[in-house]
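Thread: Modeling a multi-component assembly for a lab meeting

Hi all, long-time lurker, first post. My supervisor asked me to bring a structural picture of a complex we are working on to next week's group meeting, and I have zero experience with this. I have the sequence lines for every component (663 residues in total). Could someone generate the structure of the whole assembly? Inputs are pasted exactly as I received them:
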Amino acid sequence: MTTRVLVAEDEPNIVESLSFILNRSGCDVTSVTDGEAALTSIRANRPNVVILDVMLPKMNGFEVLKAVRSDASVKDIPIIILTAKGQSQDRRMAEEIGANAFVTKPFSNQHIIETVQKLTSPSGELT
Amino acid sequence: MAQSAIGLKIRDRRLKLGISQTELAQRLGISASYLNLIERNKRNIAARLLNGLADHLGVDIEWLDGEAERRLVQEIQELATDPLLREFELAESSAADLVARSPEWAKAMVAMYRAYINRNETVAALSDRLNQDPYLGEAIHKMLTKITTIRSTAEILDTITDLGDQERQRFQSMLAMESTNLSGIAEGIAQFFDTADTETAAMTPLEEVDDFILDRNNHFPEIEQAAESLRREIDAFAIPVDSKMIDYLTRRFGIAVRFVTSNQMDRDRVWNNVEFDEATKVFQIEDSAPAAGYRLQIARLICRFALRKVLDEMVETSPLLRSDEARNRAQGALASYGAACLLMPYQMFLEDAERARYDIEYLARKYGASYEQICHRLVSLQRPGAEGVPFAFMRTDPAGFITKRMPLPRLPLPRYGNACPLWAVYNAFQTPGSVCRQIAEFPNGERFLFIARAQGKAQSRFNAPRHLVSVMIACDILYADRTIYADGLDLNAAGLEVPVGPSCRLCTRRACAYREQAPLVEPGKSATPYGPAHPS
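Re: Modeling a multi-component assembly
Sure thing. I ran the full set together rather than chain by chain. Output:
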């Protein structure tokens, strides 16, 4: 079954390269560029995994993550938090709110693909 | 202006004009001996006589009256209070003599001092920028974003061999564009460092202590642990009661604790309504002192003695504390921290705080502590694995002087000068005693819940001046709903937030109606989301 990935990122070139590599690895990728749109899309389309940037307009990634985790209909969707700020405070906040993975920019394509695959594998766990 | 300067000026001017004392006295219609007394500063000068003197000496009355000089004297007196000049022991009274004898030198000194203050403020603001600068943070964020694209694109070009011509061209073009953007951002950062002053070292003992506490994120596990043992030793109940602590002070350290009237205290040695005489080992507490205040002071004294070894080691080994005064002050601050640990034990306090959803007033009642003491303790709940809500802390007086600050990584608090006047910590002065809450949105979109309350320090008597301070804690909006202060607020609703900035000089909101100072760097000159200089 095709893995449906939502990429929420406001940097168009990152969206393009992420979409390209994920498509090539067999995922079906859709993208949004702000937090509100991300939340709407998650609720409407229930993707298999979400790659969520922190610094998004309208609602930031943490706010989206928190809203998702408090919405029973979508709360179990795996979410990868993407950030250019690797501060421990950000990581801690992401973990507390319920992120499944935390990836800091710049990341390698392979790392992203592996993280998506692990989160959508039957065990659903990162090693 | 001091009378001495007027007498001296009259004499100097008269001699310069070659008029004898007798001659001038005759012209003024007064006796020579009276003029002599005036010139020797033994008599005040009536307004009519002053007019006559100005006429006959050919000078403006303002010059003679000395309004301008009076201001100059005040400025000299003010600069003499600067800690920088403390060692010179400048007498306040000598300012008038200096102005009278060498007004140009006095003006030069004031001009130099103003330039020095201005320079200091600039250095301080730039130091803040380097440490917690929103522009710099944003530029680095953008840089990492560009590098992400470059890395990802380069990997695609390098590892995917079956790329179509169009795809290859597209990714090559992206690579070129993002490389150009990255260069622009890097240039912006280089320019920032070219123009920014790099002085970041603390300049006063207070600032050294400030840095020391901030460096430890206001959490000292060594003291927390030592205070836990101490509580058992004091044989206290869940919360150490006054009598147990007083018994312990006497039993362990031979310190006598007495409640006395203010008349029985040495006013020069009283601090926060208590006085401790090291020589006689007597600790006196003013009998009308607020309980929360003296309880903390008793606990503080216990910590000073019982935790001396721990505190000494922490202070002696810190490279941030360079002066003796800073080390002494740090000892005091750490003893206060220990006192808070004794009175509000970590685990119990954390559980209570979580259960009460950080209701400061409830916690103050439960622990018999002041509002500020509770706020202070909340900020220190940062034990790894058992953290409370991360709070920033700020205390300011009505003049805007920030007397205590503990920032959060994403919430910079100015070390010098004022924060943004729209912050709740200032609004709270309008309604002393009431909690003022606010969702504050910064120019970069970060949102925080501000919780502030202005309160008067207990007045010692009816007609004593009322001293107000405003205390604020602040947390990221994501933690807001763990606090009682978010009740009734729709945290996601648009329009509830107040657009604020860090401070005028660091804020990029051009259209702000409350702007008092120009921003240090124009938005268009830095790589920020408010006015990017480089295409993204």
